[in-house]
Design a protein that fits this description.
Zincin-like, four-stranded mixed β-sheet, about 55% helix
């Protein structure tokens, strides 16, 4: 990956936890809600195991679910980043992008996460990691090519809001259990009718057909709900909801024009992104709310009277003046927000 050129942040932004919309009672309620949903998915997994294999099947399903969650807890970030062939960058290799993330993390009271760049024209970003201390955020070169500096900062703030709210862990575990339910249902469909269970036969057939569908709906409902929360938290962290709104509009158009190849191969990855990786809209079967609804909520947030008192947003970096002879005019130099020089 070529080294990216860039500037340091041009404005000094002080953290103000009072403006960050997470923690306290709201954070505890969110934790309780997600814990209950994960418990419901685990119970669905165990119930399906019971119908297929009786008490022993339920216990085996519980052990499998616990093992998969434990493996996911420690390895989800590595799996996701490897899936996208993401390359880690730092303050030397990509100073502007890394500086934006570091400053936003400071404002949000978070440790600076690892920052990754994905060499892909599809414009998108995501966060991953089991907790704020082990989090990572990633953006594609396609995203950096179509957004301005303030919009990139707004997108990174959205991803850090996911980290702060621990959405990354919750969604990864949800996807793991939902996938396990589908796998177990397929197993039960082909091997569950081997011995007579009396009235349980009909229940088994219904379960193997309905359980994956129910698990998918729960997974998608969690995914859609978390996007609204991250939009709000990201807008507060960044300071300008309209910048996130304009970034979402650009990314939605770009994602429709250039779908994600990773999401096409593995649709579960689409739930990680800030906009749908395959360009699909809002419904019970979509991973994200409709972009126009998210934009409307951000516009309302920006225009609503009340004690928002948003912090100053990111300003464009000051230009560095150099002698004309030292600046080559024959080609465009890459920047930290467009490291491959793709922006016209």
């Amino acid at each position: 990956m070529r080294r990216a050129l860039g500037h340091r942040l041009s404005v000094e932004l002080k953290p103000d936890p009072a403006h960050i919309g997470f923690g306290g009672l709201k954070g505890k309620m969110n934790t309780l809600r997600t814990t209950m949903l994960l418990a419901a998915l685990t119970a669905l997994f165990m119930g399906l195991g019971y119908l297929i294999g009786g008490t022993g099947g339920a216990l085996i399903a519980l052990v499998i679910a616990a093992g998969m969650n434990l493996f996911t807890y420690w390895n989800a970030d590595k799996i996701v980043l490897r899936m996208h062939n993401a390359q880690e960058v730092d303050a030397r290799s990509c100073p502007q992008l890394f500086g934006i993330v570091a400053e936003l993390a400071r404002r949000g009271g978070l440790p600076t996460p690892r920052v990754y760049l994905i060499d892909e024209p599809h414009p998108n970003a995501f966060a991953t990691g089991r907790n704020p201390e082990n989090a990572a955020v990633a953006a594609t070169t396609g995203l950096l090519a179509i957004l301005d500096r303030d919009e990139v900062a707004a997108v990174m703030a959205h991803e850090l809001a996911h980290v702060k709210n621990r959405d990354t862990l919750v969604m990864t575990m949800t996807a793991t259990i939902a996938g396990a339910i589908s796998m177990l249902a397929n197993f039960g469909l082909f091997f569950g009718g081997g011995r007579d269970r009396g009235g349980n036969t009909v229940a088994l057939i219904l379960a193997v057909l309905v359980a994956p569908f129910a698990a998918m709906l729960v997974q998608l409902a969690i995914s859609r709900a978390r996007e609204y929360g991250a939009d709000k938290g990201g807008a507060e962290m960044h300071g300008n909801p309209r910048k996130l709104a304009s970034a979402l509009a650009k990314l939605a158009r770009g994602a429709q024009a250039i779908p994600s190849q990773v999401a096409a191969r593995n649709p579960a990855a689409a739930a990680l992104y800030i906009v749908p990786g395959l360009g699909r809209g809002d419904s019970w079967f979509s991973t994200h709310p409709a972009t126009e609804n998210r934009i409307a909520a951000l516009e309302a947030m920006a225009g609503a009277p009340g004690p928002h008192s948003f912090l100053p947003s990111f300003a464009a970096p000051a230009e560095t003046h150099r002698p004309a002879a030292s600046v080559p005019r024959s080609r465009k130099a890459p920047s930290a927000l467009d490291p491959h020089g793709r922006r016209p």
